[in-house]
Amino acid sequence: MKIKSWAEPYKIKMVELLKMTSPEERKAAIGKAGYNTFLLKSEDVYIDLLTDSGTSAMSDRQWAGMMFGDEAYAGSRNYYKLEEAVQSIYGYKYLVPTHQGRGAEHLLSQVMIKKGDIIPGNMYFTTTRLHQELAGGTFRDVIIDEAHDPDCEFPFKGNVDLNKLEDLVREFGAERIPYVSIATTVNMAGGQPVSMENLKALRAFTNKHGIKIIHDMTRVAENAWMIKQLEKGYKNKTTAEIVREICDLTDGATMSAKKDALVNIGGFLALNDYDVFEEARNLVVVYEGLHTYGGLAGRDMEAMAIGIRESVSDDHIHARVGQVHYLGNLLKKAGIPIVKPVGTHGVFIDAKAFLPHLSQDEFPAQSLAAELYLASGIRTMERGVVSAGRNKKTGAHNYPKLELVRLTIPRRVYTQAHMDVVTETVVELHKQREQITGLEMVYEPRYLRFFQARFKKKE
Ligand code: PLI
């Protein structure tokens, strides 16, 4: 007999109690937070779908590993264990640990980007693009057009459009393109994967032009799982094998281990080129910490080394992506406009379609995220015009085609019943959508404004 249902490959040993709030308490809390879910106190949140970053539940092995923390300032044994995990699982030669992903992006951008350089990427990510800009570079989006269409069902919406890349090479010359930035999966597109076929074609193209590929490998195991499910020739390969094949097609990587690698803090820069590594290793001591801890405690590196191995297990990743798809399929069946196909780390509601009566200047996704909190205490995140920031030359808002609310699922944290409560909340709110009004921004920070901006209800 073959059982087709899947379930989590773990059982629960300890629980964290949640606070239930009343509608009045939620109204007061979101008002105090300036209608920005980032500014809520987490104790006022019931189901926290703000992010999958640093919010995973660690395994008993990872917790046990924390007790093996070697907190020596230099040469901690946990660093060597992490280095061994990065080399053997991902295949990169050199490791620079950092406190999280953006620490690695900072070092990489400072080392590899010169003023006036162009950095093509498969859609922007907020911190990645900012570090590229702060280093004097300009990001250019080369993702396929399908990625900007929430209704397009193409299975690999993270793919690079090689014609767009070729146009950039023709316009600026390969010498002004230090690398192509490739994210697996693409967060801002709705957690969409890149195909191996596309990666191989990109490798051939960049080899021809002497351009490097730097891999944002934050959710590489999830991407590998989708390749296993959908791409011809990969059904019988393990997630670990596919992860390795992806990494082998690239020259280096930035990693936020707070996602795929199942830790609450940590990241790294991994490189194959010794000269770039040497520069980055030199710079890490200025910004993060010594090159054998990079801003992390020894115990954090131990947990990361164990988490990396757990993250590429087929059973783990099946249940992880399975839970996200469970929620996505319920919402889709209920007629809620979501980004299709369902991504791997969250379900993204199309706020333009949910609230067609609001213009993008009224911040529909921001407003919908606040309403979801008001309805039942679930916390989600805006991924639209607020996240996209302003054009660095003109100062005008960037208006992304995708105006989304992200329901991000932490790994190994919530149950199927939590997903049912989330579904009911979204469906009930959708019935009352015409009553939802827009917002006005009343405070705007200079960098990454979505984290700290404040809003009020539009009159
Ligand atoms: O949050 P960091 O600094 O560890 O990592 C930055 C980062 C880089 N790349 C990608 C694709 C990310 O998703 C990412 C962080 N994402 C967050 C925090 C998120 O909520 O999606």
Structure description:
This protein is an alpha/beta fold. The chain folds into 2 domains: 23-52 and 314-457, Aspartate Aminotransferase, domain 1 (Alpha-Beta Complex), CATH 3.90.1150.10; 60-311, Aspartate Aminotransferase, domain 2, CATH 3.40.640. Helix content is 40%, strand content 13%. It contains 16 helices and 14 strands. It has helices at residues 23-32, 60-66, 77-90, 101-112, 126-134, 162-172, 196-209, 220-230, 239-248, 274-287, 298-311, 314-333, 351-354, 364-376, 385-388, 416-431, and strands at residues 47-48, 94-98, 118-121, 138-141, 179-183, 212-216, 252-256, 267-271, 346-350, 378-379, 381-383, 404-408, 439-443, 454-457. The strands form 5 sheets. A 5-stranded mixed beta sheet has the order 2-8-7-6-5, sandwiched between helices. A 3-stranded antiparallel beta sheet has the order 9-12-11. Strands 1-10 form a two-stranded parallel ribbon. Helix 7 links the parallel strand 5 (179-183) and strand 6 (212-216). The longest helix has 20 residues, at 314-333. It is globular and about 60 Å long. Bound molecules: ligand PLI.
What topology emerges from the helices and strands here?
Blueprint: H1 23-32, E1 47-48, H2 60-66, H3 77-90, E2 94-98, H4 101-112, E3 118-121, H5 126-134, E4 138-141, H6 162-172, E5 179-183, H7 196-209, E6 212-216, H8 220-230, H9 239-248, E7 252-256, E8 267-271, H10 274-287, H11 298-311, H12 314-333, E9 346-350, H13 351-354, H14 364-376, E10 378-379, E11 381-383, H15 385-388, E12 404-408, H16 416-431, E13 439-443, E14 454-457
Parallel strand pairs: 1-10, 3-4, 5-6, 6-7
Antiparallel strand pairs: 2-8, 7-8, 9-12, 11-12, 13-14
The structure holds ligand PLI.
The site of ligand PLI has 15 residues, from α4 and α5.
